[in-house]
Amino acid sequence: MQNMLTLISNVFRGTASKNGARAVVSTRSYADFTPQATFDTKKCELHRLDHGPPQQAVLTREQGLQYYRTMQTMRRMELKADQLYKQRIIRGFCHLYDGQEACAVGIEAGITREDHLITAYRTHGYTMTRGVSVKEILAELTGRRGGVTKGKGGSMHMYGKNFYGGNGIVGAQVPLGAGVALACQYQGNNQVCVTLYGDGAANQGQVFESFNMAALWKLPCIFICENNQYGMGTSMERASASTEYYKRGDYIPGIRVDGMDVLCVREATKFAADHCRSGKGPILMELQTYRYHGHSMSDPGVSYRTREEIQEVRSKSDPISMLKDRLVSHNMASVEEFKEMDIEIRKEIEDAAQFATSDPEPPLEDLCDHIFYNEGPIEVRGTNPWTKLKSRS
Q1: Max Cα separation, the chain?
Q2: Residue 177 and which of 121, 190, 211, 233 are 20 to 30 A apart at CA?
Q3: Does residue 69 contact residue 324 with C-beta atoms inside 8 Å?
Q4: Distance of CA 110 to CAs 39, 53, 104, 190, 222, Å?
Q5: pTM of the model
């Protein structure tokens, strides 16, 4: 009988799925695990608000495993991108997101797929949480036809449904996000736009112009500053007279959030989305987070900070380790489950990398496609008047 139970367990291990997220089943029964638990979260600092997000978050076992899988997949994907770049398979700009996974996963858990999101050039994580596959992301990084933007966008220019990139100009996505929020208000669809920027872009004039217009028109816009402590190689203290980025909106309410805790980010995002949907106008969030890699692949990341500083954050505040420890300590998952999941994730990443290095590059005749949306083929001049190319929608 015991052998039969073991056989059944092995057959069903790792096959349960729901909402597109695979839930690994260990040799222990579901009944052995705690299905739901409540966790304390760090209190948010508030600006122009009477109350903030709750200081407790309810987490189900299924949610916890889904968040872990997504963050760990994101981490492994970025490490693979690092490897491919050093092998000179990925070229050009490449800004990695490892260390900041709780921001992307927590934000996505606090909004709906019908809501909108726009970010800067550190975009791989958000491309993934918005529904684009790892295979398409890595293929875009290697400039292949199977990439999410057909191999023509690269690291900074990835898009998906209700996801507007991926923008290479510092701060330029912020007024675009305000415009998306204006469209939501105009259409009356009860949707919000999450508009992200970094601490390095926080001093841009166009950011404050966007704040002003959003406040005047009460736009449903969640402005989020991902404060990873460094703008390129400059610490925030050297770049900003005020580092209280959540107060930078002045007349816009703000909250400062622990960006290394996925539950804290999720609850704060839910709070911000409810604020916008209720017609109160925009809100500003500052997520205090940290990137493990340098600003880009050309930056070793240790000329303006010490290796000890990076290691201290990894050991004390890593978002993936924190979530894993919570689930194990509250009997919501087992160490064996995480080991099995990690093996599956590594295989997924390796398969995606294989595709990204074997898929063909886009041919020259595809170069000018998609200049216009829903238009018939048009002729585009090349680098001289005698070279003609076709643009197809």
Answers
A1: 80
A2: 233
A3: no
A4: 16, 12, 10, 15, 12
A5: 0.91
Q: Are 104 and 77 in contact, with CB atoms under 8 Å apart?
A: no
Beta bridge partners of 38: 58
The CA distances from residue 241 to 168, 228, 235, 238, 248, in Å, are 25, 17, 12, 8, 11
Query: Two tokens at 137?
Result: 């992301």
User: Minimal CA–CA distance to 210: which of 182, 168, 246, 247?
Assistant: 182
Question: pLDDT tens, 138-181?
Answer: 999 999 999 999 999 999 999 999 999 989 999 999 999 999 99
CA angle 240, 306, 228 (to 5 degrees): 40
Contacts of residue 39, Cβ cutoff 8 Å, sequence gap at least 6: 56, 57, 59, 263, 326, 330
Residue type for 162, please? N
In eight-state DSSP terms, residue 366 is G
Query: In this structure, what token pair is assigned to residue 234?
Result: 């400059």
Cα distances from 340 to residues 26, 30, 192, in angstroms, run 8, 16, 37
The 10s digit of each residue's pLDDT in 269-295 is: 999 999 999 999 999 999 999 999 999
In 3D, which of 52, 62, 50 has the Cα closest to residue 23? 62
Q: Which residues contact 284 (CB under 8 A, 6 or more apart)?
A: 47, 211, 223, 224, 225, 245, 246, 248, 249, 252, 253, 254, 255
First-to-last C-alpha distance (Å) of the chain: 62
Residue 59's DSSP bridge partners are 37
Interval 293-302 mean pLDDT: 94
User: CA-CA distance, 170 to 33, in Å (whole number)?
Assistant: 46
CB neighbours (10 Å) of residue 8?
10
Give residue-wise pLDDT tens across range 219-243.
999 999 999 999 999 999 999 999 9
Alpha carbon 370 to its chain centroid, in Å, reads: 25
Query: Whole-angstrom Cα distance, residue 200 to residue 22?
Result: 37
